[in-house]
């Protein structure tokens, strides 16, 4: 059992919200290194000169990331396959307190959706969406300075 | 393999290692042996390839052809990265310039440095500070602060993990608040001549004059961080008020629906206690 944080909650700020049944909501994070596609809840290239993006409210809860192993063929297998696929589509985005990124200021990592479903492969061979954002140095910040 | 054994230099933690393995799996693979392999095909102004040659001069020739400055996209970065880099550079330069400004002198006309600081503290900063937090009151309130969905027992709500976390945050907040109030009062006293000027107080006065945050408010004597780091004094004070607002609302009313995680001293603790 490991905790993972799910971060594709694209709620609009300003609306009254109720506390979630499980876990907590967090707001006030900034996305650095990429932009955010609100309708599709995924990362996209940032606009020129836009260094930070105000990230929507994040729903943090503890879920099991243990990929169901083996088991009977059929239902168990399918669930396992789905879990692996879901894991692949996520970019494990680190969350830092300050823009100075180091171990001391790292709080946790959250999986956020990296790829548009069925996006065409870019010109760079063998590069997955998660790799692209990793090279971009995408991270979430609590504070901009 | 190559990346797993690399350690030191710029690669010092698990995240660095991940990035390194990302680069290596992208660039050090069978593809490089194919003719005309391009490391970053999306970069068009210069083709980064492996020169197809056996002789040393050919390689030198190719290296000399490379552009003098590398664009961020070669490393997979967004062009904005260049902007971030330049911003950091200029902020560093401006801070150095500020440090070289003369602290005394000037003289004649207007308020002196000390009087300006005194007026600023008395009129602006001190009245803004939130009231002290009474630990006894807090304990009382925590006991009756309900958790969601009937969590915890009546009268013992202070044992809910998130409420314990809240009490720790309040304690730390009160500690910082005490230091801030104490420094402000001793700055005024020292300026008035009631107590003697120590180097520490002089430093604080200079920092307030320059709209920067007194060192004592951000670090304890051992150099460990005790509060949030900001560039300007106004930003720091705003952080203080925003933090107070969140904690105060939480203890006096109820658990907020959404948390401002930036406003916690110990965000890891927050995530642990919410599980």
Task: Describe the protein's topology.
The complex is a heterodimer of chains A (145) and B (275).
Chain A lengths: L23 E4 L2 E3 L2 E3 L4 E3 L7 E3 L3 E3 L14 H14 L1 E7 L9 E8 L15 H8 L2 E3 L4
Chain B lengths: L13 H14 L28 H10 L14 H21 L12 H16 L6 H9 L17 H32 L6 H11 L5 H4 L14 H20 L5 E3 L6 H8 L1
Helix pairs in contact in B: 4-6, 4-7, 5-6, 6-7, 6-9, 6-10
Structure described in brief:
By secondary structure, chain A is α+β, with helices and mostly antiparallel strands. Chain A has helices spanning 75-88, 129-136, and strands at residues 24-27, 30-32, 35-37, 42-44, 52-54, 58-60, 90-96, 106-113, 139-141.
Overview features:
heterodimer; A: 145 residues; alpha+beta; Hypothetical upf0131 protein ytfp; five-stranded mixed sheet; two-stranded antiparallel sheet; B: Substrate Binding Domain Of Dnak, Chain:A, Domain 2; 53% helix; 1% strand
Structural write-up:
The complex is a heterodimer of chains A (145) and B (275). Chain A is of the alpha+beta class and 145 residues long. Chain A has a single domain (24-141), classed as Roll (Hypothetical upf0131 protein ytfp), CATH 3.10.490.20. Chain A has helices at 75-88, 129-136, and strands spanning 24-27, 30-32, 35-37, 42-44, 52-54, 58-60, 90-96, 106-113, 139-141. In chain A, strands 5-2-9-7-8 form a five-stranded mixed sheet. In chain A, strands 1-6 form a two-stranded antiparallel sheet. Chain A has a two-stranded antiparallel sheet with strand order 3-4. The radius of gyration of chain A is 16 Å and the shape is globular. Chain B is mostly helical and 275 residues long. Chain B folds into three domains: 1-33, no CATH class; 40-78, no CATH class; 113-274, Substrate Binding Domain Of Dnak, Chain:A, Domain 2 (Up-down Bundle). Chain B contains ten helices and one strand. In chain B, helix 4 (113-128) crosses helix 7 (199-209), helix 6 crosses helix 7 (199-209) and helix 6 crosses helix 9 (233-252). The longest helix of chain B has 32 residues, at 161-192. Strand 1 (24-27) of chain A pairs parallel with strand 1 of chain B, so a sheet runs across the interface.
